[in-house]
Each structure stands twice: as C-alpha cells, then as structure tokens.
Amino acid sequence: MKSPPRLKGALIFKLEIGNWKNKYMKPVVIIGAGPSGLAAAYELAINSVPVVLIERLGQVGGLSRTIRNNGAHFDVGPHRFFTQNAEIHQLWEDILKENLLSVPRLTRIFYKNKFFYYPLAPMNAFFGVGPVSAAAIVTSYLSTRLSQRISPNEPKNFEEWVVNQFGRKLFETFFKTYTEKVWGIPCTQIGADWAGQRIKGLSLWTAVMNSIFKSKQKNIKTLVDEFVFPRGGAGFFYEGLASVVEDKGGKILLNRYAEGFRHEDSRIKSVILRNESGEREEIEGDAFLVSSPLSDGISGLTPEPPTEVTEAAKGLRYRSHLGVDMQVEGNPFPDNWIYVHSSDVKLARIANYRNFSQEMAGSDSTTPITVEYFCFPGDSVWERKDDELIDLARTELKHMKILQPDQVHSWFIVRNEKAYPVIEIGYESKIQILKSYIARFKNFQPIGRSGMFKYNNMDHAIMTGLLAARNYMGSKFDIWSVNIDAEYHESAEVPQKNHSQ
Ligand SMILES: Cc1cc2nc3c(=O)[nH]c(=O)nc-3n(C[C@H](O)[C@H](O)[C@H](O)COP(=O)(O)OP(=O)(O)OC[C@H]3O[C@@H](n4cnc5c(N)ncnc54)[C@H](O)[C@@H]3O)c2cc1C
C-alpha cells in the first residue's frame, strides 16, 4: 500500500449515507473492518448509534479474515482464539454459539531436521538436542539464574530478556533464528517489552514443572494446550459481528481505501476515500475510530501536521506477511502449526487448517495449509512473482520432508502489508510524539493493532474497539492501556451492555 497522496485539487464526491433516525445526525466513521473496527461498529450499532465502517478489501475480518478458495477455508496464518478477558470470551460465545469449537493444540518447532514440542517439553528437547547440548542448556540456565540472583540486570532488548529468563544456550537454540525470521532485525534491536508480552510468565523452570506435573498454571499464555476456534475459520466470527452491525442499521462499505482526513478546529471533519473505480468520495462524521496503520493516518491529515510529527510517523516500521496458500493431498502433519527455526529455509511457519476445524478442509482428501514468510516490502521474497513463490514453498517443504511437490493440488498467494508493527528499540519516542499530536483531536481515536502500533492479539484489538465505542457514548477509558493482562478492567468500570439484538 502506497502512502496516501495529499488531497489538494482532488475531485471529490460527497457520500451521503442515509436513513438515520435523525437526518442531521452524522455517523461515527470507522476505518477498517478488522477485529477492532468491527467490535467498535458492533458496540455502537447495538446501542443505536449510526455507524459507517470503511474497508479497503472486499471482505471483512482484516488480518483475522477467512479466505474461501475451491471449497477450502484459509486464515491469514494460524489464528488461535485465546483470551483472559471474560467479556471477550462471552462475545465469542454469543456470536458463534454451537460453532465455537474446542480444539486440542499441537504445535512444534522444526529445528535441525527434528521436531520439538512447543511449549518446550524438557524430555523431548533433551533427547532432541542430544545430551551434550542439553547439558550446555542446563548449565547456561543455572549460571544465568545465579548471576541474576547476585546482580540482577534490567534487560534492554529481546535477547537480554530471553537470556535472563532461559540462559544463552536455550536462547540460541530455540529463540534466535525464528524471532529474527519474523522480525527481520537482530534480537538485540527488538524491544524487551515485546518479549514481556509474548512469553511473559514462562521460565525454563515452569516448562520443566509443566512437563512433569501437567501444570495447573493455565494462565501462562504459551502453555495453553487447548483453545477455542470458530468452526468455519477465524473470519467466521468477524462475519458474524458484521451481520449484527448490518441488522442493526450500520453500513459497511467494502473496497474503499481511506486515504486522508480533513480537520479543522481540533476536530476531524471528514474522511476521503478512494473507491474501486479510483473515484474520490468524502464522508463527514461525528467521530472517527481508525484501525488503519497509525503512520498512514498521520500522513493523510489535511492540513498537514508539523514535520516532527510526519517524521515520527515515517520512522515506524511494519513487517509484512506473505502466505503461500495451498490445498495439498492428504494431511501432511498433525500440528495446528509448525514453527520453522531452521535457517536453511526462508519459510517461518506452516499452518494446517484441517487441524483447526475439519470444516475448513472442504474435502476429505485434501488439506488447506499456509506456508508463511515474513518480509519487508522490497526484499527478495516479497518481490518474487507468484509462480516463483509457489516454487520456493514447494522446494522448501520437500527439503523439510513435509510433502512432495506433486502433492500440491492448487495454490494462491496472499500478501498483507503492515501486518506486524516492529517493536524495535526507540519506537516508543516516536509513538509518544504521535500520541501527543493526535490528542488535540477530540473526535479521533486510533484503535487496534496497526492503528495503535501495538503487538495486539485479536482479543486486545476487539477490546480497543469496544472501549473506543464506549468512550464515544460517554465513558472515559484509557484505550492505550489495553494490554495482555486486561488490567484496564481494574481501573475502569465497563458499562452495562445492551444485548438486544
Ligand atoms: C500471521 C498472523 C497470525 C496471527 N495469529 C493470531 C493468533 O493466533 N491469535 C490472535 O489472537 N491474534 C493473532 N494475530 C493477530 C490478529 O490478526 C490481529 O490482532 C487482529 O487482526 C488485529 O485487528 P485490527 O482490527 O486491529 O487490525 P486488522 O486485522 O489489521 O484490520 C484492519 C483493517 O483495516 C483495513 N484497512 C487498513 N488500511 C485501510 C485504509 N486506509 N482504508 C480502509 N481500510 C483499511 C485492513 O484491510 C483491515 O481489514 C495474528 C496476526 C497475523 C498477521
């Protein structure tokens, strides 16, 4: 996606979105029909607030959408539903009812031609790496713990965080290569707070205890061995939310790209859209909840923000996700997904949707899988043509002995730019500049993962949408504090929900 052009001189059609109870009423305009945008639209629509949802793609669900092809269902890589937030879980149940499945989790790491359970099972890891490496892992773990006891140090980056927690040898064996494939930068440049979010609460000791005693510590994220999941794929839930929005009178406009916002007197007046035919349209709104990437939102403002702000926006980097989606013969492996740490292949993960839900397979004899690559636009994988990508994926799967090239029946490529905000050292100061600039707009709220530049999972994205909608209706939540442990609930009351649908 290119940076939005400035709006001067553009021919723009005013789009009247009608039939609100009060014809002078302006709707709340939401950008992006992903989890955060849909959750916001849902909350507003069930409370009879006029709402218009703008989506660039031809379908809803964002990064959590489900793509149908040839009878099979593909998500954008594996999308496990997991939350510690009872309200979100209830929403999944309310929308999905009997279509919310309970799925056993099997995920393994592929490293040096061997499979290791993830979360790590010490006995499996011990026999997998062999006694010499296992002894080195234990020794390095014990010496790190000892030195941490004697002089604890605050980790400054991802590498130091993991080394402090697990020891250097385990970091090098099981964390380094995969993390660097995903983020495309050295682990020393990744912020320690990402590790804190991602693997918080897990230590080698916990992993050992878990493997021996089948841990009761269900709350530790990476130790969860079962998860809930929508029968038809992750996007099935978001399609359910979208139909409630439309039933309640909300409007969802697909295939429209929001390229800029006009503002005046500390208020956003309108959003400028480009439709499929390339025409520009303008929608005025009472408030704007924006889940498109934060940097795009800032650089699309007219009048333009000060240079310091536009420079901070340009300094935020996002990692893109490239999925080679295939329907393959049989079922090539039993895992929901496999993390591929080996550095002799470029692929980072393989998702198997039959192992999420039989219904996603669409046939008894084939299985939909996604071979996942993480890229910066412009790099050697991202720039390959589609048929070069399928060749790469086929060759790498053969090399890993996962499947033979002739087992691939059909395939297509899905590119998602700006899928992962890169939580690299120094990003916080840029976010601070952007946050303090946009705080002047009384009716503009970034929401969701790319919108707030946070490494959010679906449940956090949903929660930011719900809370932004509630703020519009009079509450005062600090949406920026929505985080992994749902701590925001402790400091603010959630208003009564209106369940009349
Ligand atoms: C490969 C992968 C695996 C993941 N696995 C999990 C998992 O297992 N569990 C989990 O909970 N989460 C997972 N996530 C995270 C999850 O996908 C996100 O947290 C969630 O989708 C974020 O929702 P959102 O609404 O903030 O953003 P998005 O899902 O990104 O939605 C934003 C929407 O805005 C649209 N948009 C963007 N710009 C514009 C514009 N200018 N105009 C109009 N529309 C625009 C986009 O097309 C998109 O539909 C995963 C993500 C990825 C990429």
TrEMBL record:
<dbReference type="GO" id="GO:0016491">
    <property type="term" value="F:oxidoreductase activity"/>
</dbReference>
<feature type="domain" description="Amine oxidase">
    <location>
        <begin position="36"/>
        <end position="470"/>
    </location>
</feature>
<keyword id="KW-0472">Membrane</keyword>
<protein>
    <submittedName>
        <fullName>FAD-dependent oxidoreductase</fullName>
    </submittedName>
</protein>
<dbReference type="InterPro" id="IPR002937">
    <property type="entry name" value="Amino_oxidase"/>
</dbReference>
<dbReference type="GO" id="GO:0005829">
    <property type="term" value="C:cytosol"/>
</dbReference>
<feature type="transmembrane region" description="Helical">
    <location>
        <begin position="115"/>
        <end position="142"/>
    </location>
</feature>
<dbReference type="GO" id="GO:0050660">
    <property type="term" value="F:flavin adenine dinucleotide binding"/>
</dbReference>
<keyword id="KW-0812">Transmembrane</keyword>
<keyword id="KW-1133">Transmembrane helix</keyword>
<dbReference type="Pfam" id="PF01593">
    <property type="entry name" value="Amino_oxidase"/>
</dbReference>
<dbReference type="InterPro" id="IPR036188">
    <property type="entry name" value="FAD/NAD-bd_sf"/>
</dbReference>
<dbReference type="GO" id="GO:0008767">
    <property type="term" value="F:UDP-galactopyranose mutase activity"/>
</dbReference>
